[in-house]
Write a structure and sequence with these properties.
The protein has 264 residues and is α+β, with helices and mostly antiparallel strands. Helices cover 29% and strands 21% of the residues. Strand 3 and strand 4 form a beta hairpin. The longest helix has 21 residues. The chain binds a DNA duplex (13 and 13 nucleotides) through helix 6.
Length: 264
DNA sequence: GCAAAATGTCAAG
DNA sequence: TTGACCTTTTGCA
């Protein structure tokens, strides 16, 4: 599910399956019928991600996908399954298929339009050569709480509600701390940590942010209820200090934090 | 069987 | 700040 690591994983997998091949593109649901017709039976060059945005390049035309909260891909080898439910976009080649459901965005763009989407996004911790400098410029000059800045895709791209809550906890940052009071050293450390965490998420396909020492049992597969410090743990005791984890809505999203570990 | 929730974004007021 | 939107899954009856 969709934070930046998910989209980078999809880009990697779709490139492996479909790049260099002629792809039959359709929209069984019909809502992407016109776009599908523009790229159907074209050769896919590559698929790449920036933040939570996915771009599939077919020559001069690019399919731009944003999963939003509910969007999902499914894929497999061999013949595609019988279409079921609301299937926005289907790709089929000789050997593989991919289905997209429920995206917020699925449309065909020309290169300048792709550029303008990219221009509105901040740096991505999962970029090949990540740099948080541009994000720091924005953070350093605003009173907006750091918890809101981390979710602002024009400040940095790819962090969602889980990584936000978890990286703030890992660095003991009070979520309402204004950006301008954050401090550059602290930002550098947090950015580096995001790069590490999100690369691990990309590799494993899941978000695990707890350190081994903070999990009841080390070694073996990390259980789902051990993977996070605070995300979705409202009311449960903090793993480090046992204070009940707090939850509050910030800009319409659920924000989780430990009021003791992340005190001012 | 149905309501609510879910890792998101945008536009209206 | 609120609601609309995209769809599936989960949890409760």
């Amino acid at each position: 599910m969709p934070e930046g690591h998910t989209l980078h994983g999809l880009a990697r997998d779709q490139t492996a399956l479909f790049a260099g091949r002629t792809v039959r593109v359709s929209s069984p649901q019909g809502r992407f019928a016109e776009g599908a017709a523009l790229v159907d039976a074209h050769v896919l060059d590559t698929v790449y991600a920036h933040g939570k945005h996915l771009f599939a390049v077919f020559g001069e035309q690019t399919v731009h996908v944003h999963l939003g909260l509910f969007g999902k891909y499914a894929s497999g080898l061999g013949a595609p399954p019988v279409p079921r439910g609301a299937l926005r976009m289907r790709w089929v080649t000789e050997g593989a298929w991919s289905d997209l459901r429920g995206p917020t965005v699925c449309r065909v763009l020309a290169p300048p339009e792709v550029d303008s989407v990219l221009a509105r996004l901040g740096p991505d911790p999962l970029a090949a050569r990540p740099s948080g400098a541009a994000a720091w410029k924005r953070i350093a000059r605003t009173r907006t709480p750091i918890a809101a800045l981390l979710m602002d895709q024009s400040v940095l791209a790819g962090v969602g509600n889980v990584y936000r809550a978890e990286v703030l906890f890992r660095h003991r940052v009070p979520p309402y701390l204004p950006g301008r009071e954050f401090g550059q050293d602290r930002w550098e450390a947090m950015w580096k940590d995001l790069v590490v965490l999100m690369r691990a998420g990309l590799r494993s396909g899941r978000i695990v942010t707890t350190r081994p020492a903070d999990r009841p049992r080390t070694g073996g597969r990390v259980r789902r209820d051990e993977a996070h410090y605070v995300y979705r743990r409202a009311g449960l005791p903090c793993r480090l200090c046992s204070t009940p984890v707090r939850m509050e809505l910030l800009a319409g999203r659920k924000l989780y934090w430990c009021p003791t570990c992340q005190a001012r």
